[in-house]
Amino acid sequence: MSSNPPPRWKRLTLWLLLIPYAGLLWVPFYNLREPALFGIPFFYWYQLAWVPVTAALTWLAYRSVRDED
Amino acid sequence: MKTDPAALAVFLFFFILITVMGFAAARWRRPKTLARLDEWGLGGRRFGTWITWFLVGGDFYTAYTVIAVPALVYAVGAYGFFALPYTILVYPFVFAVMPRLWQVAKEKDYVTAADVVHGRYGSRALELAVAVTGVIATMPYIALQLIGIAAVVKALGLSGELPLIVAFAVLAVFTYSSGLRAPALIAFVKDIMIYIVVIAAVVLIPSKLGGYGAVFAAADQAFRAKGAGGILLGPSQHVAYATLALGSALAAFMYPHTLTGILASQSGNTIRKNAVLLPAYTLLLGLIALLGYMGHAAHLKIASPTDVVPALFQSLFPGWFAGFAFAAIGIGALVPAAVMSIGAANLFTRNVWKAYVDPGMDPAREAKVAKITSLVVKFGALLVIVFLPTQFALDLQLLGGVWILQTLPALVFGLFSGWFRAPALLAGWLAGFALGTTLAWINGLKPLHALVLGHASVTLYIGLLALAANILAATIANLIWRPARSPA
Question: Can you tell me the distance from the alpha carbon of B241 to that of B185, in angstroms, rounded to the nearest whole number?
């Protein structure tokens, strides 16, 4: 797609996109009641916390490829 | 239920507002002509970051979501929360795949997924498989939006089918005249309203019910009393939860309506930026899901879990705000229903009508056929809701998710690799489609199948199982029937 491929280290940031899959698909890791936060069991706030984390990781990946097209 | 005049007045005000906006949308960012399929059906491919954010947000997080996700959480607990990891994991996938799809579509003037597949493989059969899957997966989805409208109409105390028919007639006419510009413009209003409603709900309702700790305790107690469900997953639900989340995430942007939002954006970077920004809606969805537990804490007496959100708003908010919330949900149904009918109409026009009936049609004729098809599609969905049991649409929508996921290899693999060939992908699609349908059928139209491996048994999402069979069949077919290659 691009005539000037970004440097190799920039490509590596795309691997960040796999982290949310690891964090959310291994269910036994977070299927827990404690530690609760403001009365919300771990199971719920852990998954909610992945929303901003995933957005941040995607943003890092975006910074490295946005000049491609 | 009793009619609250304040609620009804607020509801009608917003409904009339968006009707006017729907018709005015034809003038918004007015093109030289609307008589082209990419103008009517893709808004001229000129939607920037914010319009795309509102449009895809309004289109992907549907009214049905606002009703059905809390209903499922209310009924079964933690398992219903899979919508959250699903709508998180969808975005890294969108980021990696969709800009490339957009690029191909833009360069070659493609309007649908099946266009892309035909352009890549030159196979009319594979194109037809993708197009037909898209249309039949979308029809019940439109019907579900009607169920969303029906739920709020009922909560407003109106009876009969007439309000539903009026709402849909309005929707049909403004989609016909304005195309994708109508839902894009209305999505601004709808999304802002939904944000207001949900933020008010998640701040005010727990304070009325004694805080989040009390809400979870009440839900926990209700599940214990019932002896089923729970605020944590049972051991046998782990794999089901993860595979449902992953399978749904992969399927989500194979649907014609979500792809329409993607293809209508103005650049690959618009899509990438949206993969960063759209999770804001996911946060909202997570909070909406918790409304299900608030239903337990409020000790609602409801006939069906789908009444939990309307009943919660009615019992805890003043009439005018309940009316505002119902308007948000009702309008929230019209935006996706419009985009779905446009996506299905684009598919029918390009990949069935143009491919088989009228290959020589000009752009104006294409737009005309698509406009008429969008009317037919919506009318069909309305008939399904009025004349068939609700459960029929729900079952079909579930099957639709399994089916649409089977188009992923044909659509996505070709963007990154030239290894697979059309006959192999078609064999894979057929294998996945057949296996998925059979498994869903023998499990009583439930999305999960218990796979027995020796003495152990794992329960997992049928769509993902069928996708694995699909990819396996395509790989085997590609290895067996590989023609002699000319020396490179």
Answer: 35
CB neighbourhood size of B122 (10 A): 10
Q: Quick one: closest CA in A to B214, which residue? A: A39
Kindly state whether residue B471 falls inside one of the protein's structural domains: no
* pLDDT, tens digit (0-9, with 9 covering 90-100), for B241-285: 999 999 999 999 999 999 999 999 998 899 999 999 999 999 999
- Find how far residue B247's CA is from the centre of its chain: 14
Output the CA–CA distances (angstroms, integers) from residue B179 to A1, B174, B183, in the order listed.
31, 7, 8
Measured in angstroms, the CA of A13 and the nearest CA of chain B are apart by 12
Which of these ranges, A22-36, B80-94, B389-403, B433-447, has the smallest mean pLDDT? B389-403
Read off the tokens for B307: 């009444």
| Closest-CA distance of chain B to residue A43, Å | 7
Among B231, B232, B287, B416, the strongest candidate for a mutation testing the A interface, having the largest count of A CBs within 10 A, is B232
The helix/strand/coil state of B450 is strand
Place of tokens 């992923």: B408
Q: What is the CATH number of the domain that holds B16?
A: 1.20.1730.10
CA distance B153 to B361: 42
Residue B326: inside a domain = yes
Distance CA B437, CA B283 (A): 33
pTM greater than 0.80 (yes/no): yes
Q: Which residue of B has its CA nearest to A33?
A: B232
Type of residue found at B200: A
Long-range contacts of B467-470 (CB under 8 A, 24+ apart): B467/B247, B467/B250, B467/B405, B467/B406, B467/B408, B467/B409, B467/B432, B469/B431, B469/B432, B469/B435, B470/B406, B470/B408, B470/B409, B470/B428, B470/B429, B470/B431, B470/B432, B470/B433, B470/B435
Say whether residue A60 is in contact with chain B using an 8 A CB cutoff: no
> For chain A, how many residues are written?
69
Positive or negative, the CA dihedral B207, B208, B209, B215 is negative
User: Which residues span the domain enclosing B235?
Assistant: 5-390
Rounded to 10 deg, the angle between the B390-405 and B363-387 helix axes is 140
